[in-house]
Amino acid sequence: MKKVKEIHSLGGRVTKSVTTAPTDSTARKSLAAETPPPRAAKAASTSPPPSSPPHPHPGAAAAAPPRPRPAPSSEPSAGLGRGGAKIPPGRTPRFGPSIFCCRIRPDPMEASSSSSPAGPAPGPPPSIPPSGDQGVWADVSPLIAAACADLQDGELVHGENFSLFAAMSALEIMDPKMDSGIERSGYYSIDEAIEDGIAPVPLSLDRTLDIQRTLDVIDHLFSCEATWHKGHTLAQTVFTCIYLMKMERISSHAVLNSFCRILRATCNSVISVVSTARTHEEEDLFTMSFGLPLNGEGDDKCLSVLNSVEETISRQLRACKSQALSKKKTLEEFESLQDNPELEEGYCRALLCRLRFRKHFHHVVTCMRKPQGRGLDLARKHVTSCLAELSSMLKSQEFLKSQSDITSQKGDESCTTASGCRPIGFDVSLNSRLLSPAPPRAVQILAWSDAIRYFEKLLHDLDIICALSLDPVLENVLHFIAQFQKSVPDLVPRAFLQTLLVQDGKLYGRDLFCDVISRALSLPDIIGDKEFQSNEFVVQLGQLVTNLLKILCTNTAWQRRKLGKSLQDWSTISIQLELALKREFGETRNVLADENMCMRVSKQLLVWSQEHTYWIASRFLILGFELDLYSPSEYCMVYWYMHVVFIKLIEKMQLRILASNENSRRKGKKKKDHSKDSVRDTPFPSSCLLLQCYVLLSEGLSMLLAALRKESKSFQSPSIFNTEQERFMQHFDLLQKAQIPECITYYSFKEAAAQAHMADVMKYNFFKEIQKIIPSLKGSFASEPEKLAELRQIEQVAEHNRIALNIINHVGASDPKLRVSFEFTHHPHFAVAVVKRS
C-alpha cells in the first residue's frame, strides 16, 4: 500500500511516496541483487545562511523548479539504483540514514498555464546559496528526480552508515505528525506576525481596552508558565508570546515590559536550578531553550523596574480610595491607568496582585538558590506573600469577567485568562520549527484556574522545603524526603530540594558526608579525623549516600528504577567490608568490652551499610504499590518478600542501636562489669516498634493470601505468557542479583506458601498483635503528626483485616459462595480484605 503526501514547493509540487517493504531482509536482498551499495559523499551544509528567505521546511530550501525527467541510463551510477543520472563531482550530496524516496512533477495548474501561448513566461530558477567555508551547497533536484524515476516499491537510497537503529531513530520529514517544519499554519517569522498586527504596541488605542488586554496577556503567560513546569517546552508555552520574544518593542509599555522582564529572569533561574539538580532527565525537554532569548540586557535590574511600576499603581490605588472617602482629590491629579474613573480601583487591584505575585515568586526562587540554605527563612516569608497574592488574583476574576464582552459559558473551565477573553500577542506555530530534536506535540495550555491550583501546590511544597531544619542526621533526612514524596511534588520543588541537600559534595553545602556517616555511627570522636575521612570504604559510602539523596528526589518511576540498580553497589560494599573485617579481626561479631577503636568502627560501619541496604530494598518494594506494578495474584509473593526484608532491617537497626548504646556507656563511665546480656536491657526506640508493625502486617497478609490460594483456589491467575516463577524474577530480579536477602529464592517462597493454613493464621493472629503495639507508639509519637497519621492508618488496616479473618474462618475459606478481594482504602501499601457472599 502506498501513501502519497504532497506539499507545495518552489515552482512545482514535491510528491513523497512512502512504501512499506514486505520485510527488512527482502528489501536488503532486492537492493543487493539489483544495485551496488552507494558511496557516501562528503556532507554538504544543510543550514541556510541568515539572509535566505524563510521556507516551509528546511528540506525544501534547495528545491528547484520542475525539470524534464532524465531518460534512464543503461549504466548504473554511484549512489543511485538502476539507471540513475550521474552525480557531477563536487555536487554529491550525502543521503542520511533516514528513508527518503520522492518524485518531482510539475503542478498541473502551472503546467496548463505554461502550455497556453498567452500564458506568462516561467520565472528564472532560484539561485543556489553561495558556498562557504563550512560546506558547499548543491542542487539535488536531478538526483531526486532520477531516484524517483528508477526506484521500485521496497527500494531505498541510503548511505554506507545506514542501519536499522538509525532508521528507527530518524525523524520522518514531510509527515505532519513527525515533521515540525511542515506545518503551514501561522506565521513563519516574528516580523511577519508583527507586520500582520498580531502583537500591537500599545495593545489598544483605547486605554481601558489596553489595560484589559494587558491583564489577559499576563494571565495567559501565568498559565503558560504552569504548563511549562508540567514538562512541556518553553518554546511551546511561555515563548509563544511575541512580546516576550521582542522585548525592545514594549519598552514604552511600562506594565507589560516590567512583567515580561521579571518573568524571563525567573524562568532562567528555574532552568538553572533544574539543570544543576539534573532531576529533569524524566522531563528532558524542560531545560531546552532552543536558542530563545532567555538572557536580556537589563534583566538584572528587573526588580527595580517592577518596584517602580508597582509604586506608581499603588499611588493610584490610594488616590482612588481617598476619592471614595472624600471629594477633595480627583483622579486628574494622578496619571490614571485607563479612562473610566469608576473602573480604576478594580483594574489597579487586579494589576497589583499580579505584579506583586511575580515579584515575590522571583524572590522565592532567588532566596532558595542561596548556598547552605541561608535564604530559606526569607524565602518562606515570600511564599506566604505569594499565597496571599494568589488569593487576591482569584478575587479579581469576578471583576474582570464583568468587564469582558464574553458571556459565561460552559467552557469557561478551559479559559487561560481570568476574564475569559482570548489574549493577543501569542502564536503557537512561531517556534514549532525550533523543535527539530523531537516530533511536534500538541500542547494544551492549562486553564487559568488550574494554573492557580498548580502554583498553590508548588508554593506549599516549597514552604515545606524551607521549613527543613537542616539537621545533619541522615536518618532524619531520609525520613523527610520519604514524607515529602508522599505529596507527589512536581519537578521544580524536587529540584530545589536536591540542590539544597547536595551542594559542592556536602550535605546542605556544610557537612562532609564522611562526618554525616560518623554521626550516624554515634562516634563523635572520629568527626573530622583525616584517617577516617580518607578511608576507602568511607569515601565509597559517602558517594553512595550522595547518589541516594539525588535518587530520592526524582519522580516515583525513576526513583524505583534507580534504587533497584543502586542495590548492587550497596550490597557489594557491604560484602567488601565484611571480608575486610574477617581478614583483619577474625570471625568475632559480638560487641566486646576490650575491642579497639578500629575494630569497633569497622563493625559499626558494616552494620550501618547493611541497614541502609535493606532500607533501600524496602523502599524499592513499597514504591511498586504506588506505581500499580503488582496484580492481586502477586500480592502474596510481594508481602512475603517485604516481610523478609523488614525482618532483616529490624535486625540491622537493633545491632546499630546496641553498638551506639555501648559507645555511650564507654564514653560516660568506663566499667569492667558490663552486662553480658546488654541486648535485653537496651530499650529499642519507637522506630523499631513501627517496623515491627510492618513486619506483622506483611506476614499476616502473606499468610492470609497463601491460605486463600491453597484452600479456596483464589488469587491464582495462571498466564499463558509467563509462569509464577518468571513473574517472581521480574519483580525481584534486582534484589536477587544483589542477594538481598541472602539465600532467598522463588523456592523459598513456594515452600513458605505451601505451609500456610487458615488455622495457623487464626492461631498467630498477627493483626491482633499490631493492635497491642499501637497504643504505646501513640504516646511516643505524640509530637509527630505525620507518624500519628501513619499509626491510625495501620490500626485501621489491622482492625479491618482482623474482622475479615474472623468472618473467613467462621464461614470457611472453601465455601464457594465466599468472595474475598483486597483494596487499598486505608493505607497505600497494605491492603484490606473485603469479604462478600455471592
TrEMBL record:
Annotated GO CC locations: NatC complex
Keyword Cytoplasm: yes
Domain NAA35-like TPR repeats span(s) in chain numbering: 464-833
Keywords: Cytoplasm
Region feature Disordered, mapped onto this chain: 1-136
Regions that span the bilayer: none
Entry-linked Pfam families: Mak10 (PF04112), TPR_NAA35 (PF25789)
Bias type Pro residues, positions: 47-57, 119-129
Main subcellular localisation: cytoplasm
Skewed-composition ranges (Polar residues): 16-25
Residue ranges that the Swiss-Prot or TrEMBL entry lists as coiled coil: none
Matches recorded under InterPro entries: NAA35-like_N, Naa35_N, TPR_NAA35
Subcellular location: Cytoplasm
Residues annotated as domain NAA35-like N-terminal: 154-294
Domain of life: Eukaryota
UniProt cross-references to PANTHER family, sorted A to Z: GLUCOSE REPRESSIBLE PROTEIN MAK10, N-ALPHA-ACETYLTRANSFERASE 35, NATC AUXILIARY SUBUNIT
Record family assignment: Belongs to the MAK10 family.
Protein name in the entry: N-alpha-acetyltransferase 35, NatC auxiliary subunit
Species per Swiss-Prot/TrEMBL record: Aegilops tauschii subsp. strangulata (Goatgrass)
High-level lineage: Eukaryota, Viridiplantae, Streptophyta, Embryophyta, Tracheophyta
